[in-house]
Amino acid sequence: MCQLLGMNCNVPTDICFSFTGFQARGGATDVHSDGWGIAFFEGKGTRIFLDPQPSCSSPIAELVRAYPIRSKNVIAHIRKATQGSIGLENTHPFMRELWGRYWIFAHNGNLIDFNPVLDGSFMPVGLTDSERAFCWLLQQLRQQFGSCAPEHSLLFNALQKLTVEIARHGEFNFLLSQGDSLFAHASTKLNYIVRQAPFAQAHLNDQDVTVDFNAVTNPEDRVAVIATQPLTDNECWQNMPAGTLWWFDEGLPVQTLATLPGPEKKR
């Protein structure tokens, strides 16, 4: 399986510390060596870096780790392939445009027999279940809301219903963002932490690296970090219960909805 990393902040922040630990899991401290990617929102634009090589040895990953790109929403992924070959076209995160905004999506899990009808508005380039799910998700949102983006609470409720439908097919942990908010679905395993004043030191699980956030932040800063497995060993990470969809905004969880699929209806 893959691993996910997301960040949602109230001010543009770099993810270098968290990415340092996450990068090691791509072939050094864990087995996720089938490619990696990361996307940063900067205003309405995005920077996206993808590499089908293991992140632990990728020169592009080294660039990202050393380059303090500041963003309010970041999504990263390291891959252990289940569907689709190892290649750039199957490397997460995926990006599409909807309602004049870029959307970024990354998935951890395996969807069995998920072959939805796609109308051509969003089509997969690669062969992963993840990209098919992303295309269908955006297609359904556009069909439901038309050409104008809905208010955020309506969007979140719609995402919950669509997530339930997809989750019937298997494990569907994901991160999704359009640059304003970050949505996270804990199908089986996700954790998060909110870092805010009073700040303290943090030490990575996967690298012997410590940072004193009090020395590199302002008192009003707030950062939510979401990861498949906690990245640090001296902070209190919160487990996100299986079958829950989360909405993060300005560095805080705003709302949570249950997504456990019910029994299939007879037709």
Reconstruct the topology from this structure.
Blueprint: E1 3-13, H1 16-24, E2 36-42, E3 45-51, H2 59-66, E4 71-78, E5 94-98, E6 101-108, H3 129-145, H4 152-167, E7 173-177, E8 182-186, E9 191-196, E10 201-203, E11 210-212, H5 213-216, E12 222-227, E13 238-239, E14 244-249, E15 252-258
Antiparallel strand pairs: 1-4, 1-12, 2-3, 2-4, 5-6, 6-7, 7-8, 8-14, 9-12, 9-13, 10-11, 14-15
Task: Give your account of this protein's structure.
Helix content is 20%, strand content 33%. With 267 residues, it is an alpha+beta fold. Helix 1 packs antiparallel against helix 2 (59-66) and helix 3 (129-145) packs across helix 4 (152-167). It has a 7-stranded antiparallel beta sheet with strand order 3-2-4-1-12-9-13, with helices on one face. The protein has helices at residues 16-24, 59-66, 129-145, 152-167, 213-216; strands at 3-13, 36-42, 45-51, 71-78, 94-98, 101-108, 173-177, 182-186, 191-196, 201-203, 210-212, 222-227, 238-239, 244-249, 252-258. The mean pLDDT is 93.
Summarize the structure.
With about 270 residues, the chain is α+β, with helices and mostly antiparallel strands. The protein contains five helices and 15 strands. The chain has helices spanning about 15-25, 60-65, 130-145, 150-165, 215; strands spanning about 5-15, 35-40, 45-50, 70-80, 95-100, 100-110, 175, 180-185, 190-195, 200-205, 210, 220-225, 240, 245-250, 250-260.
